[in-house]
Amino acid sequence: MSGERQLAWVGRVAIMTLPAEIDLANAEQVREDLLSAVAQGASQVIADMTATTFCDSAGITALVRVVRQATAHGSGLRLAASAPTVTRVLALTGIDRLIGVYPSVAAALASAGGDAAVAEPAPSAPGQAGPAGRAPLPG
User: Could you list the residue range(s) of the whole structural domain that residue 96 is in?
Assistant: First the structure.
């Protein structure tokens, strides 16, 4: 497992490549890496999970903490995830209603407008019904 994350910038949108597995062993480092992009002035952070095939509850918790801290700093978080095992966990936990989940980095970037000024909530913003009309997450 690589300790090094790849970070790319498109304007003020940061794209961070995440590891194949996100679990208790590396979830805190993933959180810190994503928040470092926020600290560097990203208007949006796209977590590239397209190569991620496993994400446990520690990884989910890390993502929730990132989106809350990013939002508090006027930034945002979007996920690019395509592995069925990962997208299923995101759906079952309701994270897909808290954080925008896209099938590719290109789709997440297009949604962000590729523009540094974009800091809007993801397509299924908290407090609104999700794409399938699901109820919002509490709190």
Answer: 6-111
Are 44 and 118 in contact, with CB atoms under 8 Å apart?
yes
How many whole angstroms separate alpha carbon 83 and alpha carbon 117? 30
Amino acid at 102: Y
CATH number at residue 98: 3.30.750.24
Q: Beta strand 13-17 with 6-10: parallel, antiparallel or unpaired?
A: antiparallel
- Phi, psi dihedral angles at 4 (to 5 degrees): -95, 125
Task: Give the pLDDT confidence of 30-73 residue by residue, as tens digits.
Answer: 999 999 999 999 999 999 999 999 999 999 999 999 999 999 99
Q: Assign 67 to helix, strand or coil.
A: helix
| Residue 128 falls inside a structural domain | no
Amino acid at 24: L
Q: How much is the pTM? A: 0.79
DSSP single-letter state for residue 126: T
Question: Where are the extended beta strands (E) located within the chain?
Answer: 6-10, 13-17, 21-22, 44-48, 54-55, 77-80, 100-102
Q: How many CB atoms lie within 10 A of CB 38?
A: 22
